[in-house]
Automatic annotation (TrEMBL):
Matching InterPro entries: Longin-like_dom_sf, Longin_dom, Sec22, V_SNARE_CC
Domain annotation V-SNARE coiled-coil homology: ranges: 125-185
Family: Belongs to the synaptobrevin family.
All copies of domain Longin, residue ranges: 6-110
Primary residence: endoplasmic reticulum
The name this protein goes by in its record: Longin domain
Signal among keywords: no
Species of origin: Dillenia turbinata
SMART domains attached to this UniProt entry: Longin
GO cellular component: endoplasmic reticulum membrane; Golgi membrane
Localization in the cell: Endoplasmic reticulum membrane; Golgi apparatus membrane
Length: 203
């Protein structure tokens, strides 16, 4: 469940919009708001902890706080929807905003969008999660096929290696035979002449 949403300018940490709620379902709402504002200030100074958060550099930071069990994919999709609409409606005014919460009217869109994302079991949100699962499945299938392809290539290399080994043995045997025949051709006439000479001496 989406609890808190804030949008701020990264360059100076100026809060641009806050999703207005009575926060009855959120204990210590003010404490969390202060933490979010401190985070925006740190981002504006370039101080962040990459190991603890995902930050994409840009002019605006979109932040939401959800229940721990809320699917991350839906939280990011929720922020993506806010980003697209906020930049479409207020894009050219972002840099010139001089006071905090200058785009408070955007809260109406935040509330409508938040209602769409509140229940993770709605058909729309299940479809988004299924799309994500399908994408992951496609990537895994592609990876498995690539691994199998590599396995097949390794098998082919192994077969070629075996073939080369057996062919090199055949080549070595033929080379030995050719050497033997060359020796016979070279020394056979000499041996015959010597044999004839020896026979003549004996007789």
């Amino acid at each position: 469940m989406v609890k808190l949403t804030m949008i701020a300018r990264v360059t100076d940490g100026l809060p641009l919009v806050e999703g207005l709620d009575d926060h009855r379902d959120l204990q210590d709402a003010e404490f969390y708001k202060q933490q979010v504002k401190a985070l925006f200030k740190n981002l504006s100074k370039g101080q962040n902890e990459p190991s603890r958060m995902s930050i994409e550099t840009g002019r605006v930071c979109y932040l939401t706080m959800c229940d721990r069990a809320y699917p991350k994919k839906l939280a990011f999709q929720y922020l993506e929807d806010l980003k697209n609409e906020f930049e479409r409606v207020n894009g050219i005014q972002i840099e010139t905003a001089a006071r905090p919460y200058a785009f408070i009217k955007f809260d109406t869109f935040i509330q409508k969008t938040k209602k769409l994302y509140q229940d993770t079991h709605t058909q729309r949100n299940i479809a988004k999660l299924n799309d994500e699962l399908y994408e992951v499945h496609q990537i895994m299938t592609r990876n498995v096929q690539e691994v199998l392809g590599v396995g097949e290539k390794l098998d082919q290399v192994s077969q070629m290696s075996s073939r080369l080994t057996s062919e090199s043995r055949i080549y070595a045997d033929k080379a030995r035979d050719l050497n033997r025949q060359a020796l016979i051709r070279k020394w056979a006439p000499v041996a015959i002449v010597l044999g004839v000479v020896i026979l003549l001496f004996w007789s």
